[in-house]
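Let us work through a complete example step by step.
Step 1: write down the sequence.
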Amino acid sequence: MPNSNLPAGGPHKRIRTVRSAKSASKKRPVSLSRWLHIYLSMVSFVIVLFFAVTGLTLNHAEWFGSKPVVKKQTGRLNVNWVNNKDTTRVDKLNIVEFLRKTNKVNGHVSEFRIDGPAVSVAFNGPGNSADVYINRNDGNYQITETSFGLIAVLNDLHKGRDTGKSWSVVIDITAILMSLISLTGIIMLCYMKKKRRTGFILLGAGVLIIYGIFHFLIK
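Step 2: predict the structure and record it as tokens.
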């Protein structure tokens, strides 16, 4: 009398069902890795391309160099902001905001110094800098602004120099995305039986080449 506890189709069908379940469980990691690899690559395509191209312009700055452009401006601000014997009461906020609004000075304030009869303010941003000299007696000021060109802006963005906290977050996100793209690529390779061995040989060769360059040519 047949065993009523066996699934329809007998033991052979049960074996096939178990094998199908195991096969499906093996495919899940590679499917997820492929999905992440494709869509993370698309999401981060522009920013990864940006860092790739600017890596070249940064490494060969002499190829793309341009003469800095210097621009001078003069003006006068409220003398009460600077003409105070108590230097702690010099109105730094109003001075900086006035220069930004009136003279379109860009960048963050890297230095604000009060030195006797003068106040000096330095602004720095990607690819440009501005130095401001203010006479504390009458409020007259002079701005010397230097622009180093588009390539300098791109190079500073690559390095994260004088770019502020927001761009720093972009760099962190880019680093995470590039790491995930690399890791998902390796996971996918682990499930490619025909290409796995060759892939890991090339991966090892790449590691050895980088180590060799560092050990023999740089150290």
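Step 3: interpret the result. The two ends are 80 Å apart (CA to CA).
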